[in-house]
From TrEMBL:
This is L-rhamnose mutarotase. Gene3D superfamilies: 3.30.70.100. The lineage of its organism: Bacteria, Bacillati, Actinomycetota, Actinomycetes, Micromonosporales. It holds the Pfam family rhaM. It comes from the Bacteria.
Length: 117
């Protein structure tokens, strides 16, 4: 499974409401994410608005495409878009910046164990 990390920026004046909205995400949105192959999905929010998301998926493009086909995702993205800066007319799920994973402890430990065996 690929580990995906992404960033967005939440408007500082909307942080409290953004947190509230994620305290109880719509059940049909949760099901859509699960069914689209998003696993172990978490969001982390800093007080300056930096939002970091992390999830695992077998196929990022397929997971994104599966969400794109759902009606609930269209509604959710429309509701969430006003919370973000810098989207330039894109939806949040189109505007997040995926980061390259440059270190993974488990991967390096496994490689080390394989060389010692």
């Amino acid at each position: 499974m690929r580990r995906v990390c992404f960033i967005l920026r939440v408007r500082p004046d909307r942080l409290a409401e953004y947190r509230e909205r994620h305290a109880a995400v719509w059940p049909d949105m949760l099901a859509a994410l699960r069914d689209a192959g998003w696993h172990d999905y978490s969001l982390f929010l800093h007080d300056d608005g930096l939002l970091v998301g992390h999830f695992r998926t077998a196929d990022l493009a397929a997971s994104l495409a599966a969400m794109e086909r759902t009606e609930v995702n269209a509604r959710w993205q429309a509701e969430m878009a006003p919370f973000f800066v810098g989207l330039d007319g894109r939806r949040p799920d189109e505007g997040f910046l995926v980061l390259d994973e440059i270190f993974n402890l488990d991967t390096q430990l496994a490689a080390l164990e394989n060389t010692e065996a």
